[in-house]
Amino acid sequence: MSDNLKEIRTNIKRRQLINKIFAIIALLTIFVALIILLGLTLQLIIQGAPRLSVEFLTSFPSRKPEQAGILSAWVGTSLVMLVTALAAVPLGVAAGIYLEEYARKNWIADIIEINVTNLAGVPSIVYGLLALGLFVYQFKLGESIQTAGLTLALLILPIVIVTTREAIRAIPNSLREAAYALGATKWQTIWDHVLPSAFGTILTGIIVGLSRAIGETAPVITIGALTFIAFLPDSPFNAEFPFIPFTSNFPWINFEQLFAWLRAPFTLMPIQMFNWVSRPNPEFQLNAAAAGTVLLIMTLMMNGIAIYLRFLFRRGVKW
Amino acid sequence: MVGLNSEKLNQGEPKAEVNNLNFYYGSFHALKNINLFVPEKKITALIGPSGCGKTTFLRCFNRMHDLYPGNRYQGEILLDSINILAPEVDPIEVRMRISMVFQRPNPFPKSIYENVAYGLRLRGENNRLILDEKVEDALVASALWDEVKNRLFESALNLSGGQQQRLCIARALVTDPEIILFDEPTSALDPIATTSIEELMIELKKRVTILIVTHSMQQASRLSDYTAFMYLGEMMEFDTTEKIFTAPAKKKTEEYISGRIG
Q1: How far is B182 from chain A (nearest CA, A)?
Q2: In angstroms, what separates the C-alpha of B125 from chain A's closest C-alpha?
Q3: A83: pLDDT strictly greater than 90
Q4: Which of A180, A215, A266, B39 has the most crowded CB, counting CB atoms within 10 A?
């Protein structure tokens, strides 16, 4: 064997060794992360499983642990998430589009960029205080579902804006130029080409944001979420056909009733859990674990819907 | 005009006329006092070494530079005696009259049909019968129809590179533009696809004026009726292709043609 070949082989051996060491370290870290996550989830599920039943989902909280349920909590969480999504998605996506496609790139844009990024790191309790001052005292929206929804929307707005911007930035300029060269306006280029291509990533950002919001406790306690509530918001719909609350005079629909739920007091899943965990009776710990399991399932379902939407949308793009 | 023998150009009516065009990227003076005729229904090739400004010049014709901040035009490009560089002319108007085929095929991630129909839809055409007819015409004219007629509603991204580029030509053609700009349309393609695109362009000049930027001198000599040689942002020489390649007037042109610079 020539000296040269020997030298090459020793060199490769040394570098391959480092390569293998790093692969092992990476594998170990992923195992640690997975085991901790699995352990926590499994413990929660095993502990809470015996309490999971239809009654648990359809009962209001109670002083007796075996009769207590999470009806008001999961309805509250679902409605607040609905308001959060309806407020944060249009605002966040529109802001992201503006910053990325329309805004001039100058120092004002830089300042806005830094601020938006920093907002994503602001502790959530600060949003709670802001919302208490602004939504509850200033706008008099009450300690209600609408206030909670808007507060959490503020909280996740930076996440939605930043992911929208990144998704839009990842669309190659050649696609935009193709549209512009045919005479498209900026809006047509964005609506027909940029947004459809960026939709998947934007949706991921929305889900990351909503998943964060669904577990938040501090800001909603600040704005006055209840810890014990034994009734549901009034239904916007009538029990009988035609369900929508029509009235005999203008504007022919009873908006008062249709949107009454927005002003209803509420509790949320994490608050209900916290309430149970802090009780001395160990039976309540089981309830908390069961509620945690339901919360996990709700989050997973939200992710599932996003994946399904993405799949549906990919097919729906006029292929 | 630099090196221009105007009698020779009488063979073609000028479709566009470039007068004292200067272009700046910020403070960088990229195009210096360019003058040129673009003869109607002929192929005019822009050649020159990398960085000489030929693509920059081409992108002035559809105001592509307006998309990015800090770019500035001076002088005029007359299209039927309207200065398309004038600030009061909407770039969209210019782009609806002059279409462009890019260096890398850039079909939309939509169906083959929607790619071609998009230019018509932008013009408000939604009548399915008219769309069907015009899409077919454009695909026939771009020599793609036979290959795609049975899969018009499949994704354009499943086509080969050469087919994608012909699709981009169909997309540019469907709206009956007055000029089509080609920015090195074959540089990302293999020789066979290149040949088919070149044959297509020769066919197309019956109906549309063509301005093409090319790196390949062979391509320029095979295809074009007129050739403009650019060097360091200046128009060195413009004449019939035959004259440029057999008896160039400038020494620089001759050096570039013979491969000594570039």
Answers
A1: 12
A2: 14
A3: yes
A4: A266
Question: Where do the DSSP E strands lie in chain B?
Answer: 14-25, 28-39, 43-47, 71-79, 82-83, 98-101, 179-183, 209-213, 226-231, 234-240
| Contact assessment for residue B159 and residue B107, using Cβ atoms and an 8 Å cutoff | yes
Q: Where are the domains of chain B?
A: 6-257
The full set of domain ranges for chain A reads 3-51, 55-229+265-316
A190 CB neighbours in chain B (<8 A) are none
In this predicted model, which residue has the larger pLDDT, A65 or A247? A65
Q: Do B118 and A192 touch (CB under 8 A)?
A: yes
Residue range B6-257 forms a domain whose CATH class is alpha beta
Fold of A55-229+265-316: MetI-like fold (1.10.3720)
Q: Of B67, B111, B123, which has the smallest distance from its Cβ to A180's Cβ?
A: B67
pLDDT in tens, A86-145: 999 999 999 999 999 998 888 888 898 888 888 888 898 999 899 888 888 888 888 888
In this prediction, residue B2 carries a pLDDT of: 46
The arithmetic mean of pLDDT across residues B76-101, rounded, is: 93
Does the beta-carbon distance from B67 to A175 stay under 8 Å? Answer: no
For residue A215, report the phi and psi dihedrals to the nearest 5 degrees: -100, 0
Note the pLDDT of residue B14.
Answer: 83
* DSSP for residue A20: H
pLDDT score at A314: 67
**Chain B neighbors of A184, CB-CB under 8 A:** 92, 122
